[in-house]
Amino acid sequence: MSGTPITSPSDQQSSEGSDPSLQSPLQPSEESRSSLSPSQSDTQSAPATMSFQPLNPRPFLQARVGTEVLIRLKWGQTEYKGILESVDSYMNALLRDTEEFIDGKSTGVLGLVLIRCNNILWIGSADSVEMTDMELK
């Protein structure tokens, strides 16, 4: 009976806190707990000018329905200019009175065109974008 001393669970918890190798893997250490919650000084030191707020494109597109837009495709130098008829939840675009431009030159009027969402590089109001500004360098 003079072997190992008998310890209570409270004695084991206090000894686990002192030796990090004895801590339960399910319980975070003091260092990790303090690093998970930001301190007040961390949140106050971040400059407001460096923050980035992502914008939802749906209100922009819904506001452009019924107006003339310019859509640039990912592939080649192809743009479509027409009246935005509708946009769905996937951001597929339906244009009417559509004119196609390849390398900045008009190839003709196509009429009603559906452009699948994954082909679109960007969409802009036609009155704010000039054809010469669309060249990628």
Automatic annotation (TrEMBL):
For this UniProt entry, what is the primary localization, expressed as one broad class?
A: nucleus
Localized where?
A: Nucleus
Q: Which InterPro entries match?
A: Lsm6/sSmF, LSM_dom_sf, Sm, Sm_dom_euk/arc, Sm_F
User: Keywords assigned by UniProt?
Assistant: mRNA processing, mRNA splicing, Nucleus, Ribonucleoprotein, RNA-binding, Spliceosome
Compositionally biased intervals (Polar residues): 1-18, 42-54
Residue ranges constituting the Sm domain according to the UniProt record? 56-129
Pfam families, sorted: LSM
Q: Name one GO molecular function term.
A: RNA binding
Keyword tRNA processing assigned: no
Q: Which branch of life, at top level? A: Eukaryota
Region described as Disordered: 1-57
> In which residue ranges is the amino acid composition biased (Low complexity)?
20-41
Q: List, in alphabetical order, the GO biological process terms annotated in this UniProt record.
A: mRNA splicing, via spliceosome
The UniProt similarity line reads: Belongs to the snRNP Sm proteins family. SmF/LSm6 subfamily.
Q: Subunit comment for this entry?
A: Component of the heptameric LSM1-LSM7 complex, which consists of LSM1, LSM2, LSM3, LSM4, LSM5, LSM6 and LSM7. Component of the heptameric LSM2-LSM8 complex, which consists of LSM2, LSM3, LSM4, LSM5, LSM6, LSM7 and LSM8. The LSm subunits form a seven-membered ring structure with a doughnut shape.
**What is the protein named?**
Sm protein F
